[in-house]
Design goal:
- Helices cover 7% and strands 39% of the residues.
- It has one helix and 34 strands.
- Strands 25, 27, 28, 31 and 32 form a five-stranded antiparallel β-sheet that branches.
- The N terminus is likely disordered.
- Bound molecules: calcium ion (CA) (2 copies).
Length: 493
């Protein structure tokens, strides 16, 4: 009997577990479907319109560094701190465009390689590193020949920068794979994607793969690709995605969203020279198109993931079929924003309250206005908040302690947080006032002139032993939402 009971109990428990697993899976699936990143345009002041610039996210201290671009080739360094662009006036790499940048998170260095300068021959092959404050040129023993418009990422599993493709001064296209470990460059003798330029890569840190998509397989006439490849540090593996695939393109942008484990692809130029504006996400098996509209169509833009706020930032690009003007100078982010208030969920202190980005005094979902219930006895009766100069609410003896109390609420709930302060002003007439003095409590329960919370009420035992004199006084409580409330009293001998 016990045996049967035990078996039945286990069976019931297993059934319950299965049901819970199914419910959990359904919940996860529907929340994943509901959680689609949206686009928001950010600052309109920043770098001038440009394309073929490069960006990388420096996770210490958490900022994006932008370098270069055209026309003409420039050597500007800009910093994006999440809200604003600031130019950093510093020496560094020569003016260039079509260069490559990637952030080495192990060494906390942004690596820059090659690109194109104005003039002939244009292709470059110098290696630079940004250490957070300055550019330093590196002189590795080995390095790729001059090239531009290659793809470059940092493989944080192997601890090396990976460079693929590009072309040189004689318009030779490459299918070489190079790696840089912070000390030296080495070419990997491997076969993989065909020769190409304008291809892009992103490093999927969860799966340990550098993902490559598309590019143009010739320099002048435009033959774009839409193949997907992955580099695991040793070999290239062509992927054959399930479902839809982004159309063939080059000069798009890719980055990896490490919070959502998706490789993001945005925009580019198709074989008919159309600028594109579609966004796709690669999960390792499938490309899924994001239906939300965003920045206008473009190519030769830069895009990078900002892990301080779990968002992707896009800057600039070209709306001309062959690059160059008209160019963009707009900044966009792409992120989960459940309440659509323009602040990424990861940095929104109230991710489901479109009116607030921090809990404030009243908490999320409640306006940050404190309902002042009124000064409580002994001062003046339940809702007495004022009185007047001519008719003070109460009289107190000089040298006594005045118990100032009030209750406050946010959206019907008592306010149990915040810093509320008390000041006193002596009036010699209804209009003539002395400066306010910070009131002093008689006990040490608060610092300065702050109220203390006791049983859901805010208390201040005001000493009238020093600083006070006989006459009419106005006691002013300033609440943490900035609102002020006052009560008139008389001090007598
Ligand atoms: Ca938000
Ligand atoms: Ca919000």
């Amino acid at each position: 009997m016990l045996h049967t009971y035990f078996e039945k109990t286990v069976w019931i428990r297993e059934q319950h577990q299965s049901i819970w697993v199914i419910i959990l899976l359904v919940a996860l699936t529907s929340s994943a479907q509901a959680q689609t990143p949206t686009w928001t345009q950010r600052a309109s002041v920043g770098p001038s319109p440009r394309d073929t610039h490069a960006m990388a996210f420096d996770s210490t201290p958490g900022e994006i560094i932008l370098f270069g671009g055209r026309y003409p080739a420039n050597n500007e360094t800009w910093r994006w701190t999440g809200e604003t662009w600031t130019q950093i006036f510093t020496s560094g790499p020569s003016p260039r465009y079509f260069h490559m940048m990637a952030y080495d998170s192990n060494r906390d260095r942004i690596v820059l390689f090659g690109g194109m300068r104005d003039g002939v021959p244009g292709a470059l092959n110098d290696t630079w590193e940004w250490d957070g404050t300055a550019w330093n040129e590196k002189h590795p023993a080995h390095f790729p020949s001059p090239r531009l418009n290659a793809a470059m990422v940092f493989d944080s599993v192997r601890g090396e920068v990976v460079l693929f493709g590009g072309y040189d001064n004689s318009f030779t296209l490459f299918d070489q794979t190079w790696v840089y470990d912070g000390n030296d460059w080495a070419e990997r003798a491997v076969s993989g994607p065909s020769v190409r330029q304008g291809c892009k890569m992103a490093f999927d840190s969860a799966r340990g793969k550098s993902v490559l998509f598309g590019g143009s397989t010739v320099v002048f006439t435009f033959v774009a690709a839409n193949d997907t490849w992955e580099w695991d540090g040793t070999m290239w593996d062509q992927k054959f995605p399930l479902g839809s695939i982004p159309i063939a393109r080059a000069e798009h942008a890719m980055t990896y969203d490490s919070s959502r484990h998706q490789t993001i692809l945005f925009a580019g130029l198709d074989e008919s020279y159309n600028r594109l504006s579609d966004a796709w996400e690669w999960d390792g098996n499938r490309w899924n198109q994001n239906p939300n509209s965003g920045p206008p169509a473009r190519h030769e833009h830069a895009m990078v993931y900002d892990d301080s706020c779990a968002r992707i930032i896009v800057f600039g690009g070209s709306n001309s079929f062959n690059g160059g003007p008209p160019q963009y100078a707009d900044t966009w982010d792409y992120t989960l924003d459940a309440d659509n208030d323009g602040v990424a969920d990861a940095c929104d202190g109230c991710p489901n309250d479109p009116n607030k980005t921090a809990p404030g005094v009243c908490g999320c979902g409640v306006a940050d206005t404190i309902g002042f219930v009124g000064f409580l006895p002994l001062i003046g009766g339940a809702d007495a908040t004022g009185g007047s100069f001519a008719d003070p609410l109460r009289a107190f003896k000089l040298g006594s302690t005045i118990p100032v109390k009030f209750a406050a609420s946010c959206g019907g709930s008592a306010v149990l947080t915040g810093i509320h302060t008390l000041q006193a002003i002596k009036y010699s007439s209804a209009v003539d006032s002395d400066p306010a003095i910070d009131a002093t409590p008689t006990d040490a329960a608060t610092t300065g002139n702050q109220f203390r919370l006791t049983d859901g009420e805010w208390h201040f035992n005001l000493s009238t032993r020093s600083g006070f004199s006989t006459g009419t006084w106005k006691l002013i409580a300033t609440l943490s939402d900035g609102s002020t409330h006052y009560v008139w009293i008389t001090i007598k001998k």
